[in-house]
Structures are given as C-alpha cells and as structure tokens.
Amino acid sequence: MIAHTYPRKPRPGDRVAVLSPSSGLPGLLPLPYELGVRRLREDFGVEVVEYPTTRRMGASARDRAADLHAAFADPTVKAVIASIGGDDQITVLPHLDAELLRTNPKPFFGYSDNTNLLAYLWNLGVVGYHGGSAMVELGRPGAMHPLTAESLRAALFGSGPYELTAPKESGDVNRPWQEPETFTAEPEMAAAEGWWWHQGDRVVEGTGWGGNLEILSWLLMADREIRPVEEYRGGVLFLETSEEMPPAAEVYRILRCMGERGLLRQFPALMVARAKAWSFERPLDAPGKERYRREQREAVLRALGEYAPGTMAVFDVDFGHTDPQLVIPYGGRIRVDGRERRITVTY
To answer: Which residues of the chain carry a pLDDT beneath 50?
Structure first.
C-alpha cells in the first residue's frame, strides 16, 4: 500500500481556499454559500480566498483544474475546501498536474463528487478529508450541528487520534436553499439509533479509502484512480451514498463488481454511512426511511457474504451525506474496534 503523509494543518488567521472543483452552485444559490463562508471567517477564524470558478456555473474542466493548481501552488494558502459536490469532477482529473499537487500538499476537504480528487490525492500519497463542504455543513441553516463543527475543527486544525461519536439525533430532510426563510431555523431532526455491527468481534486498524459509492463506480468504469487491488490490502473501506438515493439493487450490483474485481476482500473492515433517505424527489416518511436503510444494509451484507465473508462491518456511521457529519481522513489511519464498539480516526 502507498505510504501516506498528512499535510501541514492551517492555524486560525491563515488563508484557506474555497473552490468549486465540481459545480459552481455558489453562483446560483448564494445563501448557504455566503453563510458557510461567514462561519469560516467568524467561527473558524480563517481568511477565505475565492477563485475564478468558485461561483461560476458551467466552468470548463480545464478552468476548474487551473483553480486547484493555483490554490495548491500558493504557499500562503494552507487548506482547500470544496464549496459542494456535483457530477462531473471526473473530467477534471486528466487536467491535473500530479507533480504540482504532490510537491505542494494541502489538506483538502470535500465529499460526494469530490471523491474523485480525494482518490487522486490518495494515489499521490497525500491524506485528504472526506467531509466539510462550505455550502452544506458550514452553510447549514440555523447553526452548524455541534458534532459536525467539532469534527471539522479537529480535522482542519488538529492532529492525532479523534474518536467518532454516534449521535442521538440525525436528519436528512432539506428545505429550499432559494428561500431566506430556510435559514431562520435548524433542519428537522429525529432520534437516531446507534451503530449497527456485523462480525464486530475484532479490532482492525488501517488506511482509509472509499468515499461516495456512486462516484467510485464511475471511477471503476472509467478505470481512473483505481490501483491494483493488492495495494488496498489491510485498509479500512468506508462507503456512503448520495441524495440521489440509489436503490438497494444498484448498491449490491456496484459492490458485486468490486467483489468480482477482487477489491472487497482486500479490506478487513468496512464502515457504511447512515444512508440519506429523503430527497425532494422522494420525500419518504419515517417507515419508508427505515425500510430504505434496512434494504441498503441487506444489499451490503449480501455482497460481503459472497465476496468478503471475513470482513467486519459497521453501519449507520454519520459521514458523507449525513447530518451531523463526521470527517473521515482519506488515506489517514482508522481504527475500528468491534469489541469496544468504538471508531477512532487520526486527523
């Protein structure tokens, strides 16, 4: 497995880039973006630096890559945060200068479509951070969730072990970002059950790899940023799904393909995020959410049973498209302790 290095962390007062490597939604939906930027400045105490495509919808892949190069090459910029995800960051990867990014490593924060860049940095031996977008987590209506803020602050400024906390509440119901009223109150939350363990009778510690399952499937199809399967041996796989809410059958099929490739069995531990189970297109009620998540878990367990029967798994961990959201170090150390029911990451 590639040796990974943690980039030096920023300190309050430092300059931090906010980029849109996927989608320039800050230009269309300024309310959550400007709220997120304000919190970065006022609550986290950093100086925010924007780039030409940060607020520009339809920017070319080449232009978005140029902004990434500018941010990483600038010695006064100490970290890079994605504004939000999207669906075409895979087209940016061919335009990236690997040597520039390798020799100017910065902590990069993003998830969803930013799985592309996180996997790219993983292959360069640079630890990234799965989570913490400007528009969603930092721009959360009403207030940042305390667990999100604590995890993001620890990942952005800190180093060393950080134990993840299972929340007592979670939410996935959104309100329209176009409406100012949305930002007058926090999102609707519901009681959350704890983590669900499968074969939690051991301790596994390894390098984290994974991200958004849909994006990983695209990388696999395009044969981008996927290394020989043996190079993932002994790592901790972490997977999450998006607001597009893929059906359980599709989740199983993606994992089946990863299994046929010999990839699943390389990981002795798997973390699966609490599946987002509500969208404007599919506003499921409470029983519908429970059923959707159960079917997702059954799909994962089916694939593990067929391709990685010895893998330990823990479900409903709050990372990715979750509220609250815990930041996962991509390429960093993750310790999954099934005996004590604890997960500790190293930021």
So the answer is: none
